Amino acid sequence: MVIKIVRWCVLTFTLIFAIVVLGISGHLLAIRHTHYWHFAALAVAVSSLTILTFPVILLVNTFLGSGDRTSTERIFGEALWLSIMWILWLATGANATHAARVHFFSGGCSFFSGFSNTICNEFRVVEAFAYINFIIRTFSVLCYTIGLFAYEFARDQSQDVTVPTSQTSASQKAPNTSGQ
User: Fold this and answer.
1) What is the DSSP string of 20-61?
2) What global pTM score does this model have?
3) Which of left, alpha, beta for 37 (phi over 0: left; psi -120 to 50: alpha)?
4) pLDDT per residue as tens digits for the range 82-127
């Protein structure tokens, strides 16, 4: 029960932060119609994927995942998708960091004034929230996925698998093939 609540909170916070990244990155793309910043395009794509898929994961598991009906394929599929999103959020944060260091030196945004200061701060916001989503995904990939795998394997071990046998096959002895 605890893992479901933690999972729901993690996916919800990631979804909220993805909405923030989408808004800021969309603004960065809108102010430069030509020669746009590539990290902002990546951030829009990754946050859009997050916004489109995480509610589906939450809704499917809320309505179809009650009880022990969670299939192994769904768990592995979700773990794979969370891992892919983990890599994409890392790439988004790294690209935002690189762009901020190239366009604005690493001393910070306080040396700029006006519109340049605003743009510099927006670079930092995308960078920060991308890394926050990466850290949340790290928690999810490491803890949640390992927990799901452990839960799934423990559930498989605890289920009694009985193979029906007929009376004739149970009473017959196997022939001796040892050559004696």
Assistant:
1) HHHHHHHHHHHH-SSS--HHHHHHHHHHHHHHHHHHHHHHHH
2) 0.72
3) beta
4) 889 889 988 998 888 888 777 766 656 666 667 777 777 787 888 8
